[in-house]
Design brief:
mainly beta; globular; single chain; five-stranded parallel sheet; 167 residues
Length: 167
């Protein structure tokens, strides 16, 4: 028996590529941790890959760098919160287009930005990530990214090919 958060057994012929899984994967409420967090003090912290976003995720960056990648993360139904405190540091949050993002942060001689809304197309039952916090002499960037978009190098090669074909 398979569960909603585990891919079924793969019995295709060798060499046949699987279709990408729908992101984000929704996990049952009992699997979602209540609180987790990271601290970057003159250092860097990364949360990426296959991980479960807790209901409350706190990140502190003091002269440090924090990257929170939700493109492959598993989320619970409803709303999860990310609370940030940035002092002379950076926090970057990457969000897939099928997650609703609410941004409610303050910047004091810094920046607190939400970018890439053109990629965002969450459905009515999509999970929500509410980002709050303060950036003092630091920056917070929340980027809605298309995980299926070509990499910058592929885009550069395609553009180069277009320019050479037209010449």
């Amino acid at each position: 028996m398979t569960t909603p958060y585990q891919p079924p057994h793969d019995d295709r012929a060798p060499g046949v590529q699987a279709a990408p899984l729908a992101l984000p994967l929704i996990v049952p409420a009992e699997m979602v941790p209540p609180v987790r967090g990271v601290t970057a003090f003159l250092s860097a912290q990364v949360r990426a890959g296959d991980w479960i976003l807790p209901r409350l995720f706190r990140a502190v960056s003091f002269w440090g760098d924090v990257k929170i990648d939700l493109t492959s993360a598993r989320l619970g139904e409803g709303t999860s919160r990310i609370e940030l405190m940035v002092i002379m540091g950076n926090v970057t949050i990457l969000v897939p287009p099928d997650v609703r993002v609410e941004c409610d942060g303050d910047a004091i001689i810094g920046s607190f930005e939400l970018e890439g809304q053109k990629w965002s197309a969450p459905g009515p039952g999509a999970p929500t990530v509410h980002v709050t916090g303060t950036a003092f002499l630091g920056s917070v960037e929340i980027k809605v990214v298309n995980p299926n978009a070509p990499s910058w190098i592929k885009q550069l090669k395609a553009r180069w090919a277009q320019l050479n074909a037209g010449a």
